[in-house]
Specification:
The structure is a homodimer of 316-residue chains. Chain A starts with a strand and ends in a 13-residue tail after the last helix. In chain A, strand 11 and strand 12 (150-156) form a beta hairpin. Helices cover 39% and strands 23% of the residues of chain A. In chain A, helix 8 packs parallel to helix 10 (231-253). Chain A is α/β, with parallel strands linked by helices. Chain A has helices at residues 37-43, 45-55, 88-91, 125-131, 133-136, 168-178, 182-185, 197-208, 217-227, 231-253, 267-279, 289-303; strands at 4-11, 16-22, 27-33, 64-68, 82-83, 86-87, 96-97, 105-107, 111-113, 120-122, 140-145, 150-156, 159-166, 260-264, 283-287. Chain A binds chain B through residues 81, 112-114, 116, 118-121, 149, 164-168, 170-171, 174-175, 178-180, 209-212, 214-215, 217-219, 221-223, 225-227, 245-246, 248-250, 252-253, and chain B through 81, 112-114, 116, 118-121, 149, 164-168, 170-171, 174-175, 178-180, 209-212, 214-215, 217-219, 221-223, 225-227, 245-246, 248-250, 252-253. Chains A, B: It comes from Mesorhizobium marinum. Chains A, B: Pfam families: DGOK (PF05035). Chains A, B: This is 2-dehydro-3-deoxygalactonokinase.
Amino acid sequence: MTSPAVAAVDWGTSSFRLWLLDAAGAVLAERRSSEGMLTAGAEGFAPILERHLAAVGAPPDLPVVVCGMAGARQGWVEAPYVTLPAGIDGILAGAVPVGGQARDIRILPGLAQRNADAPDVMRGEETQLAGVLPLVASGRHVVCMPGTHSKWVETADGVITGFRTWLTGELFSVLSKQSILRHSLGEDAVPPLPDTPAFVAACGEALAAGGDIGPSLFRIRAATLLQGRSPADAAATLSGLLIGAEIASARRVIALPAERVTLVASGALGSLYAAALKRSGCAVLQADADEAVRTGLFEAARRLGWTRPTSENTVP
Amino acid sequence: MTSPAVAAVDWGTSSFRLWLLDAAGAVLAERRSSEGMLTAGAEGFAPILERHLAAVGAPPDLPVVVCGMAGARQGWVEAPYVTLPAGIDGILAGAVPVGGQARDIRILPGLAQRNADAPDVMRGEETQLAGVLPLVASGRHVVCMPGTHSKWVETADGVITGFRTWLTGELFSVLSKQSILRHSLGEDAVPPLPDTPAFVAACGEALAAGGDIGPSLFRIRAATLLQGRSPADAAATLSGLLIGAEIASARRVIALPAERVTLVASGALGSLYAAALKRSGCAVLQADADEAVRTGLFEAARRLGWTRPTSENTVP
């Protein structure tokens, strides 16, 4: 195994991920936990980070680069928002050092759109964008980054010019767990497959309705009561309605260059969005979200001079 | 005081209301509590009802007519849904007796729309409709009944021909208490006034967007972070967005006769909907929701022969 050059950390509201990377960016070890900002705010950020670093055998002087909610005002150390328009690579230069630590730790800033009528913020997605910079370095692009708070980002020649947020993932969570619909979805809602008929139908309905799914949500409950539809059917319908509505809505407010979207997403969610985007008439170029944030963090480390090639920089 | 002729009960998911009525329908006493179906399902419906009847001094043979979720499958005694189209006055004839009680207790049925593509159900609102029957007895009408689950009902010559449900009240509740927006709205969200600028602006925005408020919800959070907007401003914005979206959405899927809506609503919510409906270009004829359900329950009692006029039927 080559020596580690840097630890890269994506520290979100409710999740923590750490990769130990060598000087070429190859992954030497990985850690995932649910010790997000909410947990770390109570227990302390440094002890959680050091415990994970110790678990992967990181040396005491290994530098760490962090993105996400650890840089929020209520996080570890505030990394103030960079205001749009912002060059994607310039964002990486704004890393804020965490004082009083034995090792060098830097937190990347988030982005703020300060338009009076469309204020918006992101923390973490800007680092994913840095990780897919080669895909958007020239020309106009629209990047869809689905999740708890889905971001749709407009770029021009590698500069972020605007973005908007949809609460899609959070709406699925609160509606499936806290609303009347929980009786229809049951305890353990499993994500549908992209070709699940109820997902396909609901997604098509939301697209046709221009994103207005107001009259469709309670129908999930009524379909259980009157038609005996299953919890899996209810979950697939809710997922299709919310994803279809996000895409219809985004296409209403954002002009797509050449009817093409760059999708940065992983796993089941990535497959559902890719299917829904294609159904809406978009060509889709997909990049993996986990790889994107890791690549962005590594790129930030490289700019800090933490990844100078050495004789060890060969994959074993 | 005249003698009571009947107790009228509106028993919802999370609320209980009882009126002691004389033979002319005048209110002799009223009780309100939060012992809705959820509480009563655990503690028992009969003890809760009898405690409230005793508190208002009801005689042991006083009959009781009930509407709402007490008639659901998971309620007290199931009063099966009446299927559309249904005459409003015919619904009142479907009251189901509660067996094994010392007094005569009847529960009114709910309504079901069994269209394959738009299944829907209501319990309680059909009794409110019966209470405003004179307003919709002839011609076509659209009735808006806002609440946790807002109902928009189409009637033709006193027959209910169709309805749709919007989750507006429940969306406000889960978004303001369970989502990221709770940090912006704070602990005790107070309803705005109809002329609160943030309500007016958000309502207009939702109407102009045809009910697609997807890109607007997270902006409430960003406006707190970037613009220092107050919790009251955030609550007024969320309220305006959701009410405006419901109205835009309903106007998309339901054709309004003569651009006129019959609004059955009480208090602050009624004022907000009246303002928003007028802003959308509708004429509004408003009836009080509490009075409507009480009148509907009394009308059901009258058909059961429980309100025969006697010499006592004079208001003191």
